[in-house]
Sequence to fold (284 residues):
Amino acid sequence: MEKEQIRKLAAELNLSVPGNELCTNMDIKTEYVGTRMYNTPILGFGAAEDPLFEEYKKVGIIGPWHMSPKEWLPEAKTVISFFFPMSLEVRKSNRQEKKVASELWAYARIEGQAYISAYMKAVAEWFQERGFAACVPSSDSRWQSLTAGKGIEGYPEIREDSFGSRWSERHAAYVCGLGTFGLSKGLITEKGMAGRFGSVVVSVAFEPDPRAYSDVYDYCIRCGACVRRCPAHAIDPERGKNHMICGPYVMASRAVHEPRYGCGLCQTGVPCEAGIPALARVSG
Ligand code: SF4
Ligand code: SF4
Fold:
């Protein structure tokens, strides 16, 4: 099986999986009907046995609760990471905001995530229909989020200020060559940071994509724009984002967007919104 086949599949699914376009049955304002939330995803391929997945289990990087590809799928050979860039309409709307996410951003965060989950399910089914094993960690029953104070099953020693989950999409994307981290802790890809990730672990062996970087922050120019954009003052110019400040602020936006929420101000109106700033490839 060739990687090109999977890239073509990715483009086809972007058009055929329902839910990427805002429609009337989503309980939305009529002015948004027909707005596309996500552009065609970009893909990266990583080896299931990449040593970084073991590194991620170290305390201080992620932690021992982070599951490796082979723990998700014993016959795993490859991790395929997908980055779904937010559409220009969604990004533009959020650029105007100074306190909370735009309505379109909140839709892309909630209805958009439902679309991405359906999309990743369709990718897994495509492999399974061809006789291969596939697992989408974020939809798997073993997936657990590590919310402050609750910890994760089997790891009672987790600190109260711990954040994360059993599978980090951004760290998987880093392994797969899709990009590096920024000060705001998002991942900067060739299509920028404003978007969402999905991934699938499969039993097919693909050649891993090369990583065009050597440091976890290679693509971040430390311009501080995200620091200035953050209404919660959650991003420190030296230490980066504090999840304990960001998380509650994002959830408090329900007061405006109920039943939705979101923020992403640090991902829009900044040089890394839609490209890699170090390469001066930011686009409108
Ligand atoms: S806005 Fe600037 S400092 Fe913040 S993540 Fe992007 S490139 Fe880095
Ligand atoms: S760090 Fe959190 S609160 Fe601050 S702009 Fe980014 S998403 Fe919003």
Q: What stands out?
A: The first helix runs from residue 3 to 16.
